[in-house]
Amino acid sequence: MQNNYDFLGIGDITIDAFIKIKEARVYRDHNGEKPQLCLNFADKVPYDDVYVILAVGNSANAAVAASRLGLKSALLTNIGDDMNGRV
Questions:
Q1: Residues forming a β-bridge with 21
Q2: Which of 10, 22, 45, 81 is the most exposed place for a label (fewest CB within 10 A)?
């Protein structure tokens, strides 16, 4: 059996983790335009929540985008034999 794809994403995948920080100060640059998130150096960063997204990265994102455009797409990558690879 042969699979014909319109798009094949090839590359590494990774994990994204988004955290909701409890405390941080926001400052503006010298022009007052660009906000900066400031934390004390070497402090443990207290957080309220974390949201983890598995199997993300440039090749995975491109394969999803191609699929959403109506193309028959696939992803070719290596998956580790650790806890996250078995999910």
A1: 47
A2: 81
Q: Is 64 exposed, middle or buried (0-12, 13-18, 19+ CB in 10 A)?
A: middle
State pTM to two decimals. 0.64
- How many angstroms separate the CA atoms of 87 and 51, rounded? 16
As a whole number of angstroms, the distance between CA 87 and CA 80 comes to 11
**Average pLDDT of adjacent 10-residue blocks, the chain of 87 residues:** 87 92 81 81 88 90 96 93 81
- What tokens appear for 61 in the block? 């994102």
Beta bridge partners of residue 28, listed in sequence order: 35
- Expressed in percent and rounded to 5, the helix, strand and coil fractions of the chain are 15, 40, 50
C-beta of residue 38 within 8 angstroms of C-beta of residue 21: no
pLDDT of residue 35: 87
